[in-house]
Write a structure and sequence with these properties.
Blueprint lengths: L2 H19 L6 H8 L2 H4 L1 H13 L19 E11 L5 E16 L2 E9 L9 E7 L5 E11 L2 E7 L2 H7 L10 E7 L4
């Protein structure tokens, strides 16, 4: 038998083993469920986190002059879900503020950089950022935030058409029309 023939037999044998040991494919319901945003899968968790984000008081005007060095812009109330559960069953989370360092809305894309004050509990981690309407606890959209530099997170995402039109004139120094809920990317 030639070496090429034994390699072909070996590959066929490995493919047969892989097929036999592979898990069954997910059902259509499971696939559709994976495509659902997290706030539709766990509405009570979203309502609790969004409610907490809306309850964080913000100070504007004179109080902003005491911002840490190198951080500009209005503070955006932010909740960081740690992924752990408290004794009462609620998701443990941290109340914080995001300081917007860069904001651009062009051609339907949002490019955003921000720092959390205090810094995120998992340095270097990616987060799923849910933008929550400031005037009501409804989700606007979600995107992934990756670490851009030490302590700074970056979002580059396509916006829904209505938000792209509304946010096109936003500047870093403007009061932001949203609050943020961050969850570790890949949680649940």
């Amino acid at each position: 038998m030639t070496p090429e023939g034994s390699v072909v037999r070996l590959l066929r044998w490995r493919a047969m083993l892989a097929e036999r040991d592979a898990p069954p494919p997910p059902s259509a319901v499971a696939l559709l469920r994976r495509r659902q945003p997290w706030w539709e899968r766990w509405p009570a968790e979203f309502a609790a986190l969004a409610g907490r984000a809306r309850a964080i008081p913000t100070a504007y005007g004179y109080a902003m002059t005491a911002a840490p060095a190198g951080r500009a812009g209005h503070p955006v109330p932010t909740i960081v879900a740690t992924g752990e559960r408290r004794a009462d069953g609620e998701v443990a989370s941290i109340d914080t503020f995001a300081r917007i360092g860069y904001l651009s809305v062009q051609d339907g894309r949002l490019r955003l950089r921000f720092q959390l004050d205090p810094p995120p509990p998992r340095p270097g981690a990616s987060y799923e950022v849910t933008f929550v309407a400031e005037d009501e606890a409804s989700p606007l959209f979600a995107a992934i935030a990756d670490e851009a530099t030490a302590g700074e997170l970056r979002v580059d995402a396509e916006l829904p058409d209505a938000l792209a039109r509304d946010w096109a004139a936003l500047r870093v120094t403007d009061r932001m029309p949203f609050r943020l809920v961050l969850r570790a990317a890949g949680d649940r």
